[in-house]
Amino acid sequence: MGDYSLNPYIGCSFNCEYCYINGSKYVESTDSFYIKSNALQMFKNQLKRKAKASERAVILFGSATDPYMNIEKELLLTRNLLNVANRFKFPVHIVTKSDLVLRDIEIFKKININGVLPKDLTFLDSKVMITFSFSSLDNEIAKIFEPNAPSPKKRLKAIKILKDEGFLVGASLMPLLPFISDSDEDIDKIFSVLNKIGVDYIFGGPLTLFGESNNDSKIKYYKIIDKNFPNISEATKQIFKEKEYPNINYQKNVYKKLGKACNKYKIKNSII
Ligand code: SF4
Fold it and tell me: Which keywords annotate this record (predicted)?
């Protein structure tokens, strides 16, 4: 959820093997990334204008990159941008795989006090929403597909802390990995763990694979599958064939399983 999206970086050093931005319009490859060095000034100018016009909106951090990749530890770009959001009283929604987000709890607390929600969202309990992204909760599987990102274990710990601080916190199971983390049992297990730590919502979806060159997500993903999971290699390629999305039956099935788990655990499948 977000009225505007803000990506402080282009590309992402977490370099997940399935990352859809490889081969998409967003970036040539996640092997390198760029820093938007004028982001702070531009953001200040834009929010100042919007605040002056009494416009209220939720700013989504991280639709096409992770705002808490490792370089953020030194650069503090996301942190400084959050301070600007607070200064102009804009609520934020953060999407991340990193527990580095905990570093900015004090700013989130300020946004929760100062932020002004858009009229249609005033019923929300928090002006800060934080969504953690997972493709699996299994640390070993995550090491294969998300080698540079903080482990699922660290992300779960961070969820607990942020929930205890009173923020709206949920999980994005996007993408669920075909034949690896998408069975009824896999999804049930993931929901059970997330439910226990009290997430407010869980949404998910199937894998998307763009492109045809070596750095594109489809080729990268198939290479990893061939190497580590040869027994599901053919089945994976069959559901995609030449398309970027798995076939419609597969997609329907995934959403059905997610719906079933949401009902079982009485968890919302969206923030609102
Ligand atoms: S964390 Fe997200 S944006 Fe970054 S490489 Fe992984 S999937 Fe792509």
Answer: Iron, Iron-sulfur, Metal-binding
